[in-house]
Design brief:
- It contains five helices and two strands.
- By secondary structure, it is mainly α.
- It has a two-stranded antiparallel sheet with strand order 1-2.
- The relative contact order is 0.15.
C-alpha cells in the first residue's frame, strides 16, 4: 500500500441468527409445499428442490427454514443416490439444522419424524464413510409425513 492509499476498512462482523420457529406453524400447508412433498416422496429430489426453492425465496417469515430444510434433506438424498458422500453429508446436516426449530410439527409436516429418520440415514452414512456409501439402501429413504389436522 502506498502512502496515498487509505487503509482498508475492516469488514463488519455479521452474526447469523439461528432459525426460529414460526408463529405460522399451525396453519395448513400451502399447495406449493404439498407439491414439493409429493415430489420428495416420489424420489424426485431435483424437482422438489425447484418447487420448494421458489416458495423459500419468496417467503419473508421464518417458515422459510422449514421449506429450506426439506429441500436440503432432499438434495442430500439426491447426492446419496449419486454416490456423492461429501454432498450427501453436507446437505443432510444443514437440512436437519434448518428443520430443528419447526419440531415437532409445522404446517402439517411431521418434522420430528423427518429429522429422526433423515438423521439416522446421516449417522449410518457417517459410520460407513465415503468408501462404503454404496451400502446405504437408497430404496428405503425416508419420506415426508403429514400429521393429522387438529
Amino acid at each position: 500500500m502506498s502512502r496515498d492509499e487509505a487503509p482498508e476498512a475492516p469488514l463488519p462482523i455479521i452474526k447469523k441468527e439461528p432459525p426460529r420457529r414460526s408463529a405460522r406453524c399451525g396453519e395448513p400447508p400451502p399447495p406449493a409445499l404439498l407439491a414439493g412433498i409429493a415430489q420428495f416422496n416420489a424420489g424426485e429430489y431435483w424437482e422438489c428442490h425447484e418447487t420448494l426453492e421458489d416458495i423459500w425465496r419468496a417467503e419473508p417469515d421464518t417458515i422459510r427454514y422449514l421449506y429450506q430444510g426439506i429441500l436440503q434433506v432432499g438434495v442430500g438424498f439426491y447426492h446419496l443416490r449419486r454416490g456423492n458422500y461429501r454432498g450427501a453429508v453436507n446437505k443432510l446436516s444443514s437440512g436437519l439444522t434448518y428443520l430443528a426449530p419447526s419440531e415437532p410439527a409445522c404446517l402439517g409436516v411431521d418434522v420430528a419424524r423427518l429429522r429422526a429418520e433423515a438423521g439416522a440415514v446421516l449417522a449410518r452414512l457417517q459410520r460407513l464413510g465415503p468408501e462404503r456409501i454404496g451400502e446405504v439402501d437408497c430404496s428405503a429413504l425416508p419420506t415426508v409425513q403429514l400429521v393429522p389436522a387438529g
